[in-house]
UniProtKB/TrEMBL annotation:
The gene is PARPA_12955.1 scaffold 45652. It catalyses: diphthine methyl ester-[translation elongation factor 2] + H2O = diphthine-[translation elongation factor 2] + methanol + H(+). This is methylated diphthine methylhydrolase. Its EC number is 3.1.1.97. SMART domains: WD40 (SM00320). Pathway: Protein modification; peptidyl-diphthamide biosynthesis. Transmembrane segments: none annotated.
């Protein structure tokens, strides 16, 4: 039976909160970034303007923001697992197709390292990003997915900033998610509102497989950084799918969660068989997987009162989680249950 966790601390982000990301570097592992999204009443070219703020917290201190960065609405963000220009960097994608790169300065504030358009059309939302550098620290590329169904690969350019290296149309509806296979970064995965889960060889932009078994839109996926060939995907259909990437005809196993739809999945920083799910209306869950890939919910966190969109693990404090929810605009810190 799952243990129910309670909030250790919380913060009202005012704008709707949709992303939480702990810095993976030991020197900055106490820092947590929280991204927000606000649809305003202002319009530009008959489109309502979306605004965002990114908060930076030191979680070893009371939850008072160390820094607040204003951008267009934040759809997703991830820390690079390799330094960029000798800085520990956070990548952010936004509601006008922009990619922002922020790095720590000597005062441990985030300053702009780069900003570019991940798509030339500012009416297209950039919905997700993933770094290739989780295992291969020399690979500084980024994959982004977009509301028009496109997938883009961003690479460092000759002048130092990021440029669009590759771009292709992957889905006919919103591509909610894209991710690298961390063990073979030539392979990219994507999922969309069309319910399709696809694999791609990024060198040819050709699909290596198309899976149609998710019952609703595919919203999240992550390659297991500890275990080669293991991948988890999630969907509005409230199910987590576990895959062996050597055979993508069907999942190895599935876990039906307690409802809500799944928005983000994150493998634990050090535990091979532990997964975190931001499960929208249902809350957040910690899932443990045994050697036969049978999964069970170990910890439930049910303090969010609206859709839980963001969740992430601390890289320094075992089983500390930050999760955030949208309409109640709250970020919570809590602990996962650790079995004896």
């Amino acid at each position: 039976m799952a243990v129910q966790s309670s909030s250790i601390a919380s913060f009202d982000t005012v704008y709707s909160a949709d992303s939480t990301e702990f810095c993976p570097f030991p020197e900055h592992a106490q820092y947590l970034a929280v991204g927000t999204y606000q649809l305003t009443d202002e319009q530009q070219e008959n489109v309502r303007i979306r605004e965002g703020k990114t908060y930076l917290f030191d979680v070893t201190k009371p939850l008072v923001p160390k820094q607040v960065i204003e951008t267009p609405a934040v759809l997703d963000m991830k820390w690079s697992h390799a330094p960029i220009n000798d800085k520990h960097c956070l990548g952010i994608v936004d509601s006008v197709g922009g990619f922002h790169l922020y790095g720590f300065n000597e005062e441990n504030h985030l300053t702009v390292v780069d900003h570019m358009q991940a798509t030339d059309n500012t009416s297209v939302l950039c919905l997700s990003l993933d770094w290739a550098s989780r295992l291969d620290k020399s690979d500084k590329r980024i994959v982004t997915s977009h509301s028009n169904g496109d997938i883009n690969i961003l690479s460092p350019g000759d002048s130092g900033g990021y440029v669009i290296k590759d771009q292709w149309h992957a889905h006919d509806l919103e591509a909610w998610i894209s991710a690298f296979d961390y063990w073979n970064t030539n392979i990219v995965y994507s999922g969309a509102d069309d319910g399709l889960f696809k694999g791609w060889d990024a060198r040819q932009q050709t699909p290596t497989f198309t899976y149609k078994g998710h019952m609703m839109g595919v919203t999240t996926m992550q390659s297991n950084p500890h275990k080669e060939h293991q991948l988890a995907t999630g969907s509005y259909d409230e199910t987590i799918y576990f895959w062996d990437t050597r055979s993508m005809r069907q999942p190895v196993s599935t876990l039906q969660t307690p409802g809500g739809g799944i928005w983000r999945l994150k493998w634990h920083p050090t535990r091979t068989n532990r997964l975190l799910s931001a499960s929208m209306h249902a809350g957040a869950f910690v899932v443990d997987i045994d050697d036969q890939c049978e999964a069970r919910i170990a910890t439930s966190f049910l303090d969010h009162t609206s859709m839980t969109y963001g969740a992430d693990w601390s890289f320094s404090e075992p089983d500390l989680v930050a999760s955030c929810s949208f309409y109640d605009h709250i970020m919570h810190l809590w602990k996962a249950f650790t079995p004896n």
